[in-house]
Amino acid sequence: MLLTNIKCLWGLRDQSLALRGVELAVLPCIENAYLRIEGEQVADFGPMQQLQHKERSGLTFDLSGQHVLPAWCDSHTHLVFAGSREQEFVDKIRGLTYAEIAQKGGGILHSAQNLQQTSSEILYEQAKQRLDGLKKLGTGAIEIKSGYGLTTEAEIKMLRVIQQLKKTAGIPIKATFLGAHAFPAAFKEDREGYIRLLIEEMLPVIARENLADYIDVFCEQGFFTPSETTQLLDAGRRFGLKAKLHANQLHNSGGVQVGVQAGAVSVDHLEHIGEEEIHLLAQHSTVATLLPSAAFFLRLPYPPARQLIEAGAAVAIASDFNPGSSPSGNMPLLVALACIQMRMLPEEAINAATFNGACAMEVQQEVGSIAVGKKANLIITQAMHSLAYLPYSFGTNLIESVILNGQFIPD
Questions:
Q1: What is the pLDDT of residues 87-124, one digit of tens each?
Q2: Which CATH number fits domain 2-70+368-408: 4.10.800.10, 2.30.29.170, 2.30.40.10, 3.20.20.120?
Q3: Rounded distance between C-alpha atoms, residue 33 and residue 57, angstroms
Q4: Phi-psi region of 254 (alpha: psi -120 to 50; beta: other; left: phi over 0)
Q5: Using one digit for the tens of pLDDT, what is the confidence trace for 122-156?
Q6: CA-CA-CA-CA torsion for 386, 388, 394, 395, nearest 10 degrees?
Q7: Is 332 exposed, middle or buried (0-12, 13-18, 19+ CB in 10 A)?
């Protein structure tokens, strides 16, 4: 396949470290470009004048006026779930807080009850349908967490569904064990008992079946304390799982410190952080993954993207697609929110949603940028004057087509 007369070919990068500081605003491009795909990979690209001296073969597509970007890398989702929670949406409008909804049996515990009663087959079909929709919006790699099971049987069921998606989805998928998402009602007065269940019963099965790449904990007031989080991350490490972390979503919970100390690949959310946490992230390799659509949906403060970028932290953005606090995996909308509400430049937001997102899943050698030998996972926009038009015109779907593994995906 040969793409010709590309107005701008963006995201040309062949490196392994996440972007920081001023480099996050650099999105390398070639104007009036071509790109050649062989099999599933990018084989060649450059200015159109260079193509005059090369043999043309295969299907050719003229993209005059259109832009080409790397596919989105969504590094934080809860894509496998059962049922929706629109009643909680109404409760929030009426003034109930996230914590108040959880206290009356809603929130995570409600999703857990639904999932426990749903078969693996139905969970897989629903998740596959969601993922197919996300791919049409340009998502070319994704991380999926468990955490809506909260029993050994249901958590393992979720992770097996994620493994099935890995085999069939055709894009890189990372699986994260989030059994420490909340304390089930049966363990409300026995926190230590549930932590023992996670460590002594769930983790051995997960390790034996190789069901997860990461372990995650919801380190937050009313959920898991910093000491409990450390205990669980240490246990996950013993079973071969790298750390990720839900940190500082509702309060300055100490999660950033715990995550950095544990060498977490990423700490995610960060709506409530201060100078200490910003400085810490700037000094370490842990990626700060921001989830602006969750802040939008819950009417929380947005994470301080500008301060993190200017301090030198590695910043990614992800969708947090889940039924309770971010029922959307629309990455183009997420890029617009990052620009509008967190004052990220379009180039910063796109880098954060592609290359740095790939780094937050450790798949940057495969996807996240355009380079010879990487997967041909690409977004082709409609004709537009500039890259800034993509987040500017946030209510319009400006993605004309998506290529995954070197093939156009069907509309």
A1: 889 988 999 887 788 777 788 888 999 999 999 999 99
A2: 2.30.40.10
A3: 17
A4: left
A5: 999 999 999 999 999 999 999 999 999 999 999 99
A6: -20
A7: buried
